[in-house]
Amino acid sequence: MFLSQVVATTFSCFIQIVVLNLSLNQIPEVCQDHQVDHFTCPGGRVFFAASIIWGLLGPARMFSPGQVYSGLFVFFILGAITPIVIYVSAKRWPRSPVRYLMAPLIFGGAGAIPPATPLNYLSWGIVGFVFQFWIKKRHFRWWTRLNFLTSSALDLGLALATLFIFFAFTLHGVGPPSWWGNNIVTSTMDIQGTAIQAHVPEGGRFGPENW
Description:
Layout: H1 2-26, H2 42-57, H3 60-63, H4 74-92, H5 103-110, H6 118-138, H7 140-168, H8 180-183, H9 189-192
Helix pairs in contact: 6-7
């Protein structure tokens, strides 16, 4: 099992590099907002923003006392206190729903935003609740034998279906059918960029006048 994971992980490293280079070199305007097939580079945008914060501006101008994001330091205190509160509460009320809470998972999971969006968290939450709570509670024998095998099968099915769709349809210029299941994603506030309080005008800026 361990050897198979090592081989698969090593092989996937080379595959990801090949796919990345092919995508950047062969897909027109792959990281642009108006890309025709809606390809985006969320991970690249996150690292670009991080390089601005930690490199160009520097953390002192962002998070020092009195700066625009100094309030974020409160989460250091919350991160230290919350696990203790949950632990004590679970010991005090062992049958209460608080026993299902895990502070590192809550705060660590929130760290995936960005590039993840509420749409990602909603789908993860629904699938996780169905398999890890409902099925586990009512069909435990099936869950112990097939739960994680089903997860691997769904991942493999997605990969194979992606390859099939690309070679059978996309490569030949055949577009997907227009129906709710395909169009709902493009109508969300996340992809339309409307889930913000205000737009920065051309040539404008937000934050302090001087950094």
